[in-house]
Structure formats: structure tokens, C-alpha cells
Amino acid sequence: MTSLVRTFVAFSLLLVGWPLLTTAQTIYTISGRVTDAATGEGISFASIAVKGLTNGTTSDAEGRYKLQTKQLADSIQVLSLGYQTRSYRLISIASQTIDAQLVSSATKLQEVRVYAKGGDPAYRVIRETVRRRDQFNPAQLSAYQYDSYTKIEGYINNFGQKRKKNKKPGPISRLLGKLPAITDENGQPAVPVFISETFSNFFARTNPEKVKEKVLKSHVTGVGVSDGGLIAQLTGASFQQYNFYRNSLYVLRKDIPSPVGAQWETVYTYRLKDTVALNDGVCYEIEFTPKRVSDLAFTGTVWIDTLKRALVQIDARVDKRANINFVDELHIEQNWESISSGVRFPTQTQVTIDTEQPTPRAPGALIRFFATARNVIENDPKEVSFYDPSIELADDYKEADALFWKSVRPDSLSPNEWRAMRVVDSVRNVPFIKVAGELIKLGVLGYKPIDKLHIDLGPILYSYASNNVEGNRFRIGMRTNTGFSRKWLVSGYLAYGTLDQAFKYSANIEYIINRKPWTVFGVRRTYDLERVGVSSDNIGNNSLFAAYSRFGTIRRPYFQEENLVYFRREMGRGFTQTLAMRNRTFEPLFPFAFQPQANDHDQTVRDSYRVTELISETRFAPDEVILQNDNVRFSTGAVRKPIFTLRYTLGIRDVLGGDFTYHRLALTMKHSFRMGILGRTYYTIGAGIIPSTVPYPLLYTPLGNESSFYVGNAYNLMNYFEFVSDRWATAQFEHNFGGLLFNRLPLLRRLKWRELVTAKVLVGSVSSANLAMIPSTDAQGRTVEGFSSLTRTPYIEVGYGIDNIFKVLRVDAIHRLTYSDNLTRTGIPVTPFAIKVSGWLAF
């Protein structure tokens, strides 16, 4: 018993005394500065850690650091990328100063001076590098694949700095100053608002050129975002491809010429700085700068292997003098390594985007992208069908623990990165930030989620309209999300007009048969007010214009009841096939009539009809990237190859009440391409034919635009329903010079304006049989409104404009060159010249 009592008393004293012992424990402080041993300059981002412990910190922009720890070992370790790691002994005292000097791991060779005719020898090196680039470019492999790890961090910064004349920070800066934050490399507070990690397998092949990413695991934490599939796809390797062996890099929707691309001699100047030992080889260290500071081009350093003339490393920047919106500096660092075939491969890439402050007192933002490529396998192409879809999300992509992420990270996270991952959860749970995040989601997606019901309300854009037929139009819409079902998608809306006092509605049910390849089946029923010439078939995906078309005076309105059954499937190799059967009515609210065809038994003039249509649409987009947000998919567009769409419609008579047999065939091609320093060209061409006799609402009506806004897919000086054709060809052209001229004018350079030109041409005709279908009066004796058709003269409008005004506005001056006297034919005034505005956020 005595022994037991002694043990109990000792244990009790230990429990009582432990808090006192921990409270009295010494806090050791180690501080100093990390510098380059050769130059004496401070080294930023150096890592300082107590040997054998997890305690550590990083140096600031001047190389200074301060480390506090409760435990002390025999030494600290100091390491930084590009320098040899060093250890320094510690003394068991409360505070000590240790200044570390690091030696570069890229050992400089003996200086060699080259005297040669023809300028700096860097030009000979770059010229030979460009000549050999096909030998080392990974794009020339028949195929390659690798394991990809990407990490993206987003911070709000520049809100804690002192203002000029001791001005107080703005209200947003004061709010940010109260949020949890970390300390950035400049010693200033930075609020982490987004962090993601993604692990995937990336595949690519040539002939045909295809890419595919399998997103295996992803974790996303941020303000206004959820750990969903869309973000997982956007943060993977597909959008972090930077190949400097290409002629240009497509970054932030800009084409930036590569310093080792085909335009190297016309865009850049070069200087041979040194020769260094790097990655077990000797390299030329060459600086490059744009010939004109206003050009959208890189400034930086490239390291070229002296023997093979191949890329080893590159450090490239684009500063605020270039014409990129919201960006103060873009910085790309990339390491290239030789793989088994001798081809060079970018194994590590880091991209930093420092955004500019919109106003002097406003905060800024910092975004960092980090990507690695490991376990590269070359020349093992898969079947072409394997690469469709281009991005595939694993079913269990959210299921990964801390041990998994530790195993796939190329390096352990720094103390600041660990802290950022913890702090971002605290930031996004602040009430004000949560509200701001929801507003961001509502503005971007247009829907308001109702989590308990697993539905999204919207789109908000269509909630209200006002016109001469409906009066005030109110509409409420909804769609289900994956919480409701991953197979069934139910959507629809209900609308009501206060003037016509009529209800309109739509209901759509879609079933996802297969996600690979994407295969869906759907049915839809709609009853709503429409207008001739401004239907969903010719508006396309322009949701803003579709909403605007519900306002104002609606000419030639009609009610349409539509029943649609459709089947859509990805066929592989960029092909998507849609088959549909549609039955719809035409119930006009204006004087309309048509003369039945000669072979009809009933020759009574009629003012309404019903059609039954079989529709086949084949779409070919070989390099298009499709993203999926829950059960909804959308395209990010194509960069290099055109998109073709072939649509055939067959009208069937006497099936489900169909009144006509007719054919309609249309083909369109959409494409854009880079024209070097001259900018980028966008164009769309199309043609079609309706070799049948049908009422004019079933013919082709080009999309006009009577608004004050510029609409990309419309003829902007053509009125609604101004022309009708049954044979037509169109061409729409736009070239954006990207500030080529304005950047060279000192007074305009800071405005970052971008000049552009446009042209749109339409040719077409109408057969005499279709003209003959229009009687002079309808059954009530009212005069029937006809239509205008094109003659041998094409419709032409050309324009010129300025983009990027205040970074959001675009102004176009448009001239209508033909049919300026069309008032006498349509009764509607024609505008030969107009200035139209539009706006969107662009880089």
C-alpha cells in the first residue's frame, strides 16, 4: 500500500505541476539574415529550420528571419533553391543571432570573353537553339504521359501598407486587417482566400493531336467556392501547360511570343551574361528583353545547354507595361530535364500573378500556381477514343487523407503554406466573407442554391422583363443539382405577364445515360411568347441578348407550343451527335397568313400551322475542352482548331399534325488564329439552303440588333426580321490588334486601349415559290405583312473600335454600306451608322 500511495502522490504532483512547468519553459529566439556569399544580397524565401524538429520559418524579401522555438537542437539548417544547404551550430541561450551565407549551387566557370563580328554571341546560341527545337520539343513525341501535382494559392494583399500623407486605409482594407492572415515575403499581412491541391494523370499524343487529364484526387478550400468537380477540373494540369518551345504561350487569354520561338529575332534582344554549371551540365546564361517595352513579351533569363543547345531553365516575366488587365506582374519559372529519348521535358513550373490595385487605397491579390511532372512515359500512344473526354473526374476524387497528399507532394510545405491552409478555413467562415462568397457565386453562376431542397433557383437574369405584349413579365425558374440525383436533371420555369394575363411555362427532364462517353436523353415541353427572327435557334448561347429581347416593343409576336425529344452522345475524336424530334405550333398575334401549297386539297388561306421535325446535328471540335459542373457541361472553347457544326432538319407532313414536308441544311465553321505581333483574328463562316416551299417564319432570318449594345453573333445595323432567305452564306470577321498602335503612343499607353476592326457580310435569296405563299390579306381581311429579301447585292457592315476602356468597356463605330434605302421596303427606319457599346471583364 505504501508503494501504491507513493506512486499516486507522485502522479498527482506531476499533473498539478505540468502546467507550471510548461508555462515556465524557455522560449528560444533565433534571428539573423540570409545572404548570397558572393554578392552579399539578401536571399528571400530561404527556409530556416531547427535540425530534427518541425519548427521553421522563411526569410523575408531582404533575407531577414526570426525563429522562435520551445526546443533547441545542436544546429539549424538553412536552405534555398539554387544554393547549397548549410548548417550552423546553436548555443543554449535565450536569444542569439546567426547570419547565414549561402553559396550558389550553380558554380560559375572561369570567365571567357568572346570577341566576334555580328554582335552579341547570344544571338548565335539562340539561333541554334531555335533551329534544334524540334529535336528537343516534347510536342514532337508520338505520345507522352506523366503524374501531375498542381497547387494553387490565392491571397489578398497590399492592404496593410502605409498610405501617402498618413492617410487612413479604406474601409475594405480596415476590414481585411481584422481577418486571420499570414505574413508574406515582404513582411506584410496577406489573407489566404483560396488553396487547392490536385493530383492527376496527364496524357498527350500527336497525329491526331489529343490530350487527356484524369483527375484522381483534388482538395479545394476557398471563399465563394465549394470542393466541387468544376473547380477540380480547372485547377488540374490541363490549364497549366507552358511549353516555351512553341512559338507563343497562351496565358490569360493572351498570346505571348516565346524567346525561343519562331519570332525570337523580331521581338527580343539578347545578351550573353555568363556560363554556369547547372543540373550536371554547363549552360549559357542569356538575358532577353523586348525590343519595344510596350510589346506584350517576356523579360527574363534563359539557360541553354552549351553542348546540345537545349532548354535547361527559364525565368520569364511580363510587367505592368504590357497590355494585360489587372496584372502588375506575371512571372513564370520553369525547369527542363532530359528524359530517356533525349527530349527535354518541363518537370517543374511555378507561375506567380501579382494583380494591380484598382485604386491607390484598394487591396491587391497574389495568385501562385505550382505544377510538377513526374514518372514521364514517352512514345506510348493510347487509342484515340481513350482521350475523350479531355478531362475526366474520378468518382472518388474527394476521398484522400493527409498521408496521401504527403506522399504526392514533391516537397514538404513551408511553415507559411501550412499556416495558409489552416487560416483559409477561418477566413471563409467570417460572416461578411461568407455573404460576399455567396454573392460571387450568384453573379458567376446566375443561380441561388437551396440546399435543403437540392435545387437551384434562376437564372436571375430572366426574372423580369417589360414589353408591349406582356406588360410586366415575371419569371421564376429552377433546376435540380447532384444532391437531388446524379442521373436525373429536372429544370423549368413559370412566367406571367400582367398585360396579356397569360401564364407561360417550360419543363425539361434530362437523363444521363452514361458519363463516358457523355450520353443523355431528354424531353421538354414549352409554351411561351416568341418573336419572328429572334428565336433561340439564331440567338444561340447569348443569354444577355436573349434577356434583352424580351424588353420594349415586340414586332411580329406569336405564341409557340413546343414538344421536344432529344438524344445526345459524344462519338469520340471531337464529334458530338444530337438527334431530336420536335413538334411546335405557330399562333401569330399579328396579321399573318399563307397560301397552302398547290398539292393541298384544302386551298383555304390559313393563319397558323404546326410542324413536326426530325433534327440531326453533328458537331466537330477536335481540340475543345469540355468542363462539367455537377450535371451541367459547358465548353471552354477551342484555341487552335476550328469548330464545325452541320445541322439538318426534315419536316414531316401528317405526323403529329405536321402541315409541311421540307428540308433545311446549314453548315458553320468558327475559328480564331494568332497573327504574330499583329494580334488575333476571329471569324465565323456559314451557309445553308431550304429547297422547299414553306411559310416565311420557317425560312432563315439573320439575327439583327436594334439595341445600343454590340452583339458578336448579330448584324449590328440590321433590324430584327429585316431580311429572309432560303439560300444564304455568311461571313463574320473580327481582328483585335491588342494595343499594337496605342501602346506606341505615349499619351495612350497607360490607358491600355486595344484597337480592333470588324466586318460582316451576308448574301442570300428567296425562291419565287416562297414569295408566292404570302397572300395580300388574311381570313379577317387584314393586310398581311410580308418580308424583305436580299438581291444580288450583299448586305455589308464594317466597323472599327476600341476595346478595354476602363478595362471593361468596348466601343464600336459601325457603318452599314448597303441597303441604306431599305426603309421603303420594310417601313422600319434604317441606321447607316451607329456607335454601340458592350462590356466584359477581359485580361
TrEMBL record:
GO molecular function, one term: carboxypeptidase activity
SUPFAM superfamilies referenced in this protein's UniProt entry, alphabetically: Carboxypeptidase regulatory domain-like
InterPro entries linked: CarboxyPept-like_regulatory, DUF5686
Gene3D superfamilies listed in its UniProt record: Carboxypeptidase-like, regulatory domain (2.60.40.1120)
Keyword Nucleotidyltransferase attached: no
Keywords: Carboxypeptidase, Hydrolase, Protease
Protein name stated in the entry: Carboxypeptidase-like regulatory domain-containing protein
